[in-house]
Amino acid sequence: MDSLNNDAIDRRPLHSEVAERLRSLIVEGELAPGDRLNERVLAERFNISRTPLREAIKILALEGLVRLLPNRGAEVTRLTRSNVEDMFQVVGALEALAGELACKRASDDDIAEIRRLHNEMLARFEASDRAAYFTLNQRIHAKIVDCAGNAELSAIYRNLAQRLHRARYMANFSKSRWSHAMEEHEEILDAIANRDSARLNSILKSHLQNKFDVIKNWLDKSATGPSSEDSVDADDSQDRKTAFI
Amino acid sequence: MDSLNNDAIDRRPLHSEVAERLRSLIVEGELAPGDRLNERVLAERFNISRTPLREAIKILALEGLVRLLPNRGAEVTRLTRSNVEDMFQVVGALEALAGELACKRASDDDIAEIRRLHNEMLARFEASDRAAYFTLNQRIHAKIVDCAGNAELSAIYRNLAQRLHRARYMANFSKSRWSHAMEEHEEILDAIANRDSARLNSILKSHLQNKFDVIKNWLDKSATGPSSEDSVDADDSQDRKTAFI
DNA sequence: AGTCTGTATCTTGCATGCAATATTAAATAT
DNA sequence: ATATTTAATATTGCATGCAAGATACAGACT
Lengths: 245, 245
Description:
The structure is a homodimer of 245-residue chains.
Chain A: H1 14-27, E1 36-37, H2 39-46, H3 50-63, E2 66-68, E3 74-76, H4 81-105, H5 108-126, H6 130-147, H7 151-170, H8 175-193, H9 197-223
Antiparallel strand pairs in A: 1-3, 2-3
Helix pairs in contact in A: 1-3, 4-6, 4-7, 4-9, 5-6, 5-8, 6-7, 8-9
The structure holds a DNA duplex (30 and 30 nucleotides).
């Protein structure tokens, strides 16, 4: 009956909407790593009660964006060097699988869409619009992963990409690295358009490695001078000694 | 001060405890795929209020064990053929990465531990104790993944393994397949003990493929006669036509 | 001064209550 | 008999309230 009902007013559950708002606050950096999430403050800010807010926080915790502190609420997760490295490793494995599948399964429309995104990104690059470039970059990678036609893969990838996003745009890259990244993207587009999975995977791999190198540099740089604040002893899973952002 | 404090009373938050209880109800099959989660009933069963229960349900939703139905609560996710296939594909990519890293990073103690688990599993195999075999099997695979020393990888793997667990033990395998699986495990142990990552990855890959074949068979078998129950039209992401368990 | 202890305040964790929505059943119409 | 409306019942979504736990601070003590 309603198989194609587009008029539906989507009364999304509140917790899901709140989760999204919180997510962007974190990803865009307004809520910085280490910040505590005060339920009263946030509930007032969003003008909702604490119940849906708490549900949203649980969601973000499982996504890895916040960390639950029993009886003390939650804080935005800090990114550590090893943490980021771990995520990059997993992303690498996932992109490899995605590249393989995408070359087989991508439709011509899919590839046209990637090309469209690519050209738009090129325009942003030429306009030196870092923010817009960034968004398009993410969308291209996500689109390639989606072309693999594996919903699980897409979901996991998206989550990791989001968590890395925070690190990535804090670590500002040089113009020369930027040009190089743009060249890599030319190759990526070319490889997938030709459904050359071997080449796609090889370029995806080095592209990722280069991204990681930039972030690694930045992490190490921000690390010099780590004695900034509280030197509380914390034999936590998230140990302070190597937490940067 | 408390760097090795084992006396700590772990007052885990209720929602987390509830999530765990619910998780095993689902994984062990007491809550079957498609079952609705009635908040009142479950809250009474666990003797808690609905608030922490709802928080737990949100957690399971993100883990992929239940599906949120706006304004209608939640239901245990059904496993579809394509869904299971997707998960297996991702698991394959993750195990490949894990095998690579584990061969490099596993300590001798780690390998001894794997051997211990393996021998215990062999004993269970010889005693035809399917349930115990199953548990040990999972623990071995998890241990190998943990040897990779990548926390993100471990977490993602664990989640997928858990979701597949439901399918795997419903699909009862033949004795001959079982023997073969046991042989494969001999090879896995051997490969990792020799830190032969090429061989480990190759055997892990075919081992996984064989597992999938068994489940695929079973899924297809349970599929013949899909007109079992409600034929409600659902142009949902989780379409009923191919939902088996 | 620095540490310890007790008190006041704030925050979280959970339970309960109420309104909105969905589900079921009954009643009516076709 | 089947389909459609209407009423009753049950269930969810969210807000609020209260008690237990955490934080901050002041005063006592070494």
